[in-house]
């Protein structure tokens, strides 16, 4: 099918873009990468009367570190995050491990983080990272700029805090210090499909004890969620020196029963039962969905602990807690 007829403008400034949105309201859509919008328009599931192409708006492609965070402009493409050097330390590693799960190279060359958050698909990887790290999303409208925390931004599938007269101008992710281990894990039914469940984890570990935990889940509910109950169960928990080897933490075959009595096994079950709110799907009932959440949270926690250990060392050597 072909899209229904629509008007098309290419503003040169954010002011021009939000001015057009203010006039058109719910009849307008923003075009950045267009990886989801164009498909929806072709299938006539989305019928905008006006498409506002922001690709020529100056300054929206900036990616910079400032004030303890990574500021990601609305036109920064997915592929910018493929190198772990995109941000200092653990944040760069987390972003690079996340982005390779997004579609394939042509999509990553055009799609944007801000566009993914604006589209708000429950399975989108950036949603898990944004909610898990408690990112800030900057929205600009004719009335001015406001900042919304990621956990307040998502309202449900394709529904967000962004008003029809507003657009995302940037996303701010907090930097993570060197005591943090990170991981991103997801499961797909097919190589080309959306994530059945995706998990982003950041663990702060000092002397083998977890002092802070962030767990973001995608496609475990009708929106990205932060597994706060599971996080709380990990605070103060000892990982245990005997369980820190790569044979366990580097394994892709973790199941909750693999660590009976260990904080990771306990947290994995809590995330599945207390934080996730999955719905039944044609290929999986709710019980199965919860099992997937438990398995992936456990694997992500193991990998985050392994990542922390690999970059630890009070004397500069890897493999020792500090």
Automatic annotation (TrEMBL):
Q: Does the keyword Glycoprotein apply?
A: no
* Occurrences of domain FAD-binding PCMH-type (ranges): 1-178
Which keywords describe this protein according to UniProt? FAD, Flavoprotein, Oxidoreductase
Glycoprotein keyword on record? no
Q: What is this protein called?
A: FAD binding domain-containing protein
In its UniProt entry, the species of origin is given as Streptosporangium amethystogenes subsp. fukuiense
Cite the source lineage: Bacteria, Bacillati, Actinomycetota, Actinomycetes, Streptosporangiales
